[in-house]
Amino acid sequence: MGIGSIVLLASLVIMGCAPSTVYVDTADDRGEAVMALDYRDFESAAGEMVDGMLGSRALENPQGGRYVLVVSRIVNDTMQRIDTDQLVRKIRSDLLNSGRVVVTTAVGLDGPEDEMNMAVRQLRESGEFNQDTVEGEGQLIAPDLSLSGTIRQRDIQMDNRQQQVEYYFELAITDLTTGLAIWEDQEVIVKRGSNRAPTW
């Protein structure tokens, strides 16, 4: 048997032993928990925090209509390379669906979230576009409220070769007119497991 045949045979054996890929039902995922944050943690934290926001009535506009919300900075203070937008997107979606707020993408700490807001306004001087269809000045709506927060991680070594990892999801909503926080909350997720399990 030649070298090529041996390599091919070994590859087939390895592929035959590999576990098959399966779809996960995210609505009923009973898979093994992990020490790091996963999508279930983001879903849980976001859901609890939205319930807290809506239950507090902080988002009920006394003048009627919906508040305009802008997303400020959500700081990742964990050992994991996580995208905080994963948390924010779920919260934004639920808040939009609640009918209490709309979210502006025309302004952000690092510039517009959707740069098209400003790009279309650069067409005002272009002879190639019907100026009646170009957005005029003074049409963008400034935000009323700002959402900011932090995700923190605290690792605790236990006596029985186990560790406890605590994740703190902290969010606040600020009234941009007064600079006062009108809502704050903290959702804590605690996990215990082997101290050999990675938390990143």
Automatic annotation (TrEMBL):
Q: Name one Pfam family in it.
A: LpoB
Its keywords, alphabetically, are: Signal
Coiled coil ranges (UniProt) are none
List the signal peptide residues: 1-20
What this protein is called in its record is Penicillin-binding protein activator LpoB
**Biological source species:** Spiribacter salilacus
